[in-house]
Write a structure and sequence with these properties.
Length: about 210
């Protein structure tokens, strides 16, 4: 298959797109033991939350309370018995790490604000449709399940869909490209018949006012 027959005309492999490192290996089941381990641990955590009645916040608070209590008592007893204190890493964030994190978050927020501005001012009809459909999908899914189940389901999807796609890449790309081209034609018709008319009506109203 040439690059024109791939989704988005991509030339890189799925492994390369996912970063080519350990994360990509886990998502594509090239580290099978690790991938299975993550799924099993996550499933166990989900069962614990569902059966025990704990929430994520209450369990996290309990774990930190137990951890800090153990470390505090360890340090106090070590001082009394002249023993070494608990071994802790250097709990400090360098200025470089903080600046990198702030720049990363700032860039993504600016992109989000720019997209929001384009939608609010009617500059990008296609992006409006994408965002509206995404929010509608999130709303429907949110009404059907809770956050914990949604997180576990998302993790299962992340650890299965890329691997399945890599295995059946040629067939999926062929059908997806056909569907994408058909949806583009439908959107062009929708844009011409509905959105463009609405924008024209708004402009006419502004001129009259």
């Amino acid at each position: 298959m040439g690059s024109s027959d791939r989704l988005f005309n991509r030339e890189r492999t799925i492994h390369q797109i996912l970063g080519g490192g350990l994360v990509a290996d886990v998502m594509l089941w090239r580290q099978k033991n690790l991938t299975v381990g993550i799924l099993v641990v996550t499933l166990a955590a989900w069962v614990v939350f569902e059966r025990s009645g704990y929430t994520l916040l209450s369990l996290t608070s309990s774990v930190f309370l137990l951890l800090f209590t153990i470390l505090f008592l360890w340090a106090k007893s070590a001082a009394i018995l002249n023993r070494p204190a608990p071994p802790l890493p250097n709990l400090y964030l360098s200025e470089e790490i903080v600046n990198e994190a702030a720049a990363f978050i700032g860039n993504h927020i600016n992109v989000l604000l720019h997209v929001s501005e384009d939608i609010a001012l009617g500059r990008d009809s296609r992006m409006f449709v994408k965002v509206a459909l995404s929010l509608l999908l999130i709303s429907v899914i949110g009404s059907l399940t809770d956050f914990l189940t949604l997180t576990y389901t998302g993790l299962v999807i992340v650890l299965t869909v890329p691997a399945l796609y890599e295995r059946y890449e040629d067939h999926i790309d062929r059908y997806a490209l056909t569907g994408y081209r058909n949806s583009q034609q439908l959107f062009v018709r929708f844009d011409a018949q509905c959105i463009s008319k609405v924008q024209k009506w708004i402009l006419e109203k502004k001129k009259l006012s």
